[in-house]
Structures are given as structure tokens and as C-alpha cells.
Design brief:
With about 450 residues, the protein is of the alpha/beta class. It contains 15 helices and 8 strands. Strands 1, 4, 5, 6, 7 and 8 form a 6-stranded mixed beta sheet that branches. It has a two-stranded antiparallel ribbon with strand order 2-3. It is flat and about 85 Å long.
């Protein structure tokens, strides 16, 4: 065989020291992330290390932030998987400067700086706006259910809790009587030498379950009392005579549920699987120019009706004000007279569906001037039936729904990693800001 092949000597010593940046071709996402992080203000993270000179030097925060942002961009959220990639994936090795932070260090860094990492959303959004990716002419609002890091089988209804509490109390009383009888027999046989704290394992297990159930019941009762107080306050504001208002029942409904693994999550119906799962509701307001997320919010409610005011607060926080004149489209889940008023008071132009059209149904043709006595719902129906209204609302689905598809299907957000509303809210912000990072990278704008 006379054919000559290129050399493949894996034991060949390198004659010149290699440059890590040369391991990855120019234009790769990893280079973009490293360059991007150099422009971000990480002072809040660096400041937390001031005055901590003891122990081993920590990893450079800029490197750790780059590592996490790149990992989320490609759909790798697990700290163990990130550690593994620093050994096996050349892009991760380049970002980590050929170091291999263990998963405990990665997890601790994310947990310690979770709030600061989520706050990078605004900086990246401003860069997107500077690059011309955000027009704020038309934005679309929608929500998506994402499974919590908890099983729905670890949830229990208030009615079941009351029944289980009674059963466990009876079982514990019976076990205590049995244990006392056994102690007396053993004392008679062996003398008094048995340790008083040496409870039977079966009794310890039941006592811990009872304690968890009591805590869950107390939390549900507090939530119900708060809801009753808010409902009574709303009724008093609507009536001139507060004495006419009957006090709502502060007791939780028997069907009210609470999860023992992540108490902040809720049972929600997932439309893709037509099943009920333990979830959070991720809200996103998306600009239709390049599908950049301009505001993100996490909700514990399965219904979208009450999410307009929180998302407007987020927009005002990001931009310092609510940009007037924007058209906002949303599906029927957001329609209410209150929400229409909230948008209009913010000088926005709402286009919200008032109901679902049947398959093949055509919106009614509207002609002439609108009557003066239209209700907000009738006015919205008329508004969406105009050519301009149909043109704007028709962009809603193609603006916001692909964003959820890219985050959940393409990048793999099937389930949140963290637990607790505050932590999961920050995690949702990180998923959304890395979505915007990818938009900026694919746009090809110079930094």
C-alpha cells in the first residue's frame, strides 16, 4: 500500500505553548460569550469577595459567569454536567481556561450570586436595544407552564391533610402506648437502663410526617386568610356601606393543595400533554422585531388573568418608564376590563382576544362609526375586527410562541432545576436572558 496519510501521533509533544483561544474557530458562540461578559458590569459579584482573603483563591467570577451563560445557552443547567463538559467539551475548556471547577463550586457560585446573575437581564436587554433588535412598536404577552422540581404525587389536599393528621395522631398515640408497655416489661426483666430518647423508628417516621402535614396545613390556612382579607377589602371598596359586606370564610377549601417538596409550586394543566403537573407559569413580553424578550416574570397562578400588572411593573423597572404608544397583543386568557384599563392607563394600545374563534369561523365585519355606549368587551371585539386590529393581532402567535419553543424544545427546559419561587424566578430570568444573548449573537452585531 503506497498511499501516504497525514500523521496521527497522539504522543507527539507540543513544541510551542498552545493558545486556548485558538482551540475554537472564530465566530463561535463561546468566543462571543467571553467577549460579552467582559463588557458586563459584574461589580455586584466582585464586591461580595472583598475582605475574604482566607482560604484558597476562588475562581475568577468572570470565568464562572461565562461558563454558566454558555451552559444555559446550549441547554446545560446541571452543575455536574457543566463540570463534565470542562473535561470533554473543548468550548467549555476554553471558557474555563483549561481549569475544571467541580460541581460543588459551580453550584455554590450560582446559588451565591443567583440574584446578581438574574439582574444581568437588563444589561443584555439594553445591548439588544442598542444593536437595533428592540423596536418597542408591537409586543406580545404570553405564559408557558414549566414543571417544577417536585412531583405532583408529593402534594396533598387540605381535606386529605385533616384526615391524615387525625389518623397519624391516633397511630402515634397507639405506638406510644405500646412503647410504654414494652418499656415496663423490659424494666421488669432487665432493670432500668433503656435510653429515653431511643424512640422506635416507626414512631419517628410518623412524627416527622405529622409535623410536615401540620406545617403545610398552617401555610394553607395563612394563604386562605390572606385571600379572604383581600376579598373583603375589595368588597368594601366597591360598596358605600362597609357594614353590608359579609366576612368571607377564611378556612382553606378541602381541594386546596400544597406540595411538600416545593411548596411554592402549584398543580397546573399542561396543554402540550393535557395532564396536570406541578408547575410554575413563566411569563414573557416579547418584541416582534426580532423576538427579544423585553420583560420576564414568574407566576404561581395557572390563570394568566392577573399577570398584566406584574409584567408592566417589570417593564417600568427595566426602562425606567413604560414606553408609551406600544401595541400589546395577548390571547383571551388575559382579557378583563381591568387589564384593558391597565394597558390604556399606561398609554399602551391593547389588542386582547375576548374569546376563542371556532375552527373556520371568520370575525364579523365592522363598518361605520362605533356607538358611544359600547362595553369594554364590545369595544375590543370591534377593535380586533378592523383591518389594523387583525393585522396586529395576527402577529401575536408568531412573536411569542416561537420563543417558548426555542427555550423549551430547542434548548431543553423541561423542568426547573431550583426550588422555591424566589430561586425559580431567578432561574427563569437566566433562561430568558440567555435567549436574548443568542438573538444578539445570531444577529451578528459587533459588541
Amino acid at each position: 500500500m503506497n498511499k501516504t496519510f497525514k500523521s496521527c501521533d497522539r504522543k507527539q509533544k507540543l513544541l510551542l505553548p498552545p493558545c486556548l483561544l485558538d482551540w475554537i474557530p472564530e465566530g463561535h458562540l463561546s468566543h462571543f460569550i467571553v467577549d460579552m461578559v467582559e463588557q458586563l458590569d459584574l461589580s455586584a459579584i466582585y464586591k461580595s469577595y472583598e475582605g475574604t482573603g482566607r482560604g484558597q483563591p476562588p475562581y475568577d467570577p468572570a470565568m464562572m459567569v461565562s461558563l454558566l451563560l454558555y451552559a444555559y445557552c446550549i441547554g446545560v443547567a446541571s452543575s455536574r454536567q457543566i463540570e463534565k463538559r470542562t473535561h470533554e467539551d473543548i468550548a467549555f475548556r476554553m471558557i474555563a481556561a483549561n481549569r475544571h471547577p467541580d460541581h460543588d463550586s459551580i453550584c455554590a457560585f450560582r446559588k451565591r450570586h443567583l440574584k446578581a446573575l438574574a439582574a444581568l437581564f437588563v444589561q443584555i436587554l439594553m445591548l439588544c436595544q442598542k444593536a437595533g433588535l428592540v423596536k418597542l412598536g408591537h409586543v406580545a404577552l404570553d405564559g408557558t407552564k414549566v414543571r417544577a422540581n417536585a412531583s405532583k404525587h408529593k402534594a396533598m389536599s387540605y381535606g386529605r391533610m385533616k384526615k391524615s393528621k387525625e389518623e397519624l395522631e391516633q397511630e402515634i398515640a397507639a405506638l406510644l402506648e405500646e412503647a410504654e408497655a414494652v418499656d415496663q416489661q423490659e424494666d421488669e426483666k432487665y432493670g432500668k437502663g433503656k435510653k429515653g430518647w431511643d424512640l422506635p423508628e416507626e414512631l419517628q417516621r410518623r412524627e416527622s410526617r405529622l409535623e410536615k402535614i401540620k406545617e403545610a396545613m398552617k401555610a394553607l390556612e395563612q394563604e386562605a386568610a390572606e385571600q379572604a382579607r383581600q376579598k373583603q377589602q375589595d368588597q368594601e371598596e366597591k360598596r358605600e356601606d362597609p357594614g353590608e359586606v359579609a366576612s368571607p370564610d377564611p378556612a382553606p377549601a378541602d381541594k386546596a393543595q400544597r406540595n411538600f417538596t416545593d411548596p411554592d409550586s402549584r398543580i397546573m394543566k399542561v396543554s402540550s400533554t393535557k395532564s396536570f403537573e406541578q408547575c410554575y407559569n413563566g411569563q414573557a413580553l416579547v418584541d416582534d422585531a426580532h423576538q427579544v424578550i423585553v420583560a420576564a416574570h414568574l407566576s404561581q397562578k395557572s390563570n394568566d388573568m392577573g399577570e398584566v400588572e406584574p409584567i408592566l411593573d417589570v417593564v417600568e423597572e427595566h426602562f425606567g418608564r413604560i414606553p408609551a404608544g406600544m401595541a400589546v397583543s395577548a390571547d383571551a386568557g388575559y382579557f378583563s376590563e381591568t387589564n384593558v384599563m391597565l394597558f390604556e392607563d399606561a398609554l399602551l394600545k391593547p389588542y386582547i382576544a375576548t374569546g376563542r374563534l371556532k375552527h373556520g369561523e371568520v370575525p364579523p365585519t365592522i363598518r361605520g362609526r362605533p356607538p358611544k355606549d359600547l362595553t369594554p368587551k364590545e369595544a375590543m371585539i370591534r377593535k380586533l375586527s378592523t383591518k389594523r386590529g387583525q393585522a396586529i393581532y395576527s402577529k401575536r402567535k408568531s412573536t411569542v410562541e416561537p420563543v417558548f419553543g426555542q427555550i423549551k424544545q430547542a434548548r431543553g427546559l423541561r423542568q426547573f432545576l431550583l426550588r422555591g419561587k424566589q430561586n425559580v424566578s431567578a432561574e427563569w430570568q437566566i433562561w430568558c436572558l440567555t435567549h436574548n444573548l443568542l438573538k444578539l449573537y445570531r444577529h451578528g452585531s459587533p459588541l
